[in-house]
Amino acid sequence: MHQADANGGNADSQTPRPAGLSGGRPQQSASHSAPRVLLTTAQAAREVFGVSERKFQQLRGQPWMPSPVVLGPRLVRWVRGELEQAAVNIPRNQPLPEPMQLLRGKVERLKRVGAAAGQPSVT
After folding, report:
1. Rounded to two decimals, what is the model's pTM?
2. CATH 1.10.10 is held by the domain 35-91
3. What ranges do the domains of the chain cover?
4. Most buried of the four, 6, 29, 82, 90, by CB within 10 Å?
5. How far is Cα 25 from Cα 75, in angstroms, rounded to an integer?
């Protein structure tokens, strides 16, 4: 039988418990990974990659980017550890394509400079 202590509690519950059995919940051992920290898109863009949200949205389509955690139709979060790992492993040998607006501007400048220098224009 259980005996009541002076505080009205159970005397048996006051005995020390072995390590790892306190609190009713199992404790995580050191071998388990750290808790998963979820970031908003704005936090992921700014804190992990140091880019704008718009650039981050463009990066989402890259094959090396991890998938987001979708909590609802308009609620997307990113696991910080997965993003940090992806940031470390970004392929560096592939040049990104030049935006079409910049490419068009370069072509127009070359046409003007080429025609002004007496060279035949490229058409």
Report:
1. 0.49
2. yes
3. 35-91
4. 82
5. 30
